[in-house]
Specification:
With 108 residues, the chain is mostly helical. It is built from six helices and no strands. It has a single domain, classed as Winged helix-like DNA-binding domain superfamily/Winged helix DNA-binding domain (Arc Repressor Mutant, subunit A, Orthogonal Bundle), CATH 1.10.10. The longest helix has 15 residues.
Length: 108
């Protein structure tokens, strides 16, 4: 039903996620908008513990600023970790990163 509404619905769901509204459910819906991702057998390079922390918070819908505050790190450090996560997972967005991480069993 949500998918039938296309990009306007995806934009609304992204906004809900950014405001921490039912983040688990919203992220599941957003993942359905994403094209299927190829399932690699394993990451070429594993995520560092801090990248896993950032990825977990990304999947909860937190903004970079919120992640920085929660982890007591600089905003630019969050951006650097996010870029590294995207590269290791082979994705280009937060939604895809969360979906790929779940697919690989990196998130509960």
């Amino acid at each position: 039903m949500y998918l039938n509404e296309g990009e306007p619905m995806a934009a609304l769901l992204r906004k809900a996620a950014s405001h921490s509204i039912h983040t688990n459910y919203v992220n599941k819906l957003l993942a359905a908008f994403a094209p299927p991702l190829p399932r690699p057998s394993a990451l070429v390079e594993p995520l560092t513990p801090r990248e896993r922390d950032v990825l977990r918070l990304i999947s909860q819908g937190l903004s970079n600023k919120e992640i920085a505050e929660k982890l007591f790190i600089a905003l630019n450090t969050v951006k650097r970790h996010t870029s590294s996560i995207y590269g290791k997972l082979g994705v280009k967005s937060r939604t895809h990163a969360a979906a790929q991480a779940r697919e690989l069993g990196l998130l509960q």
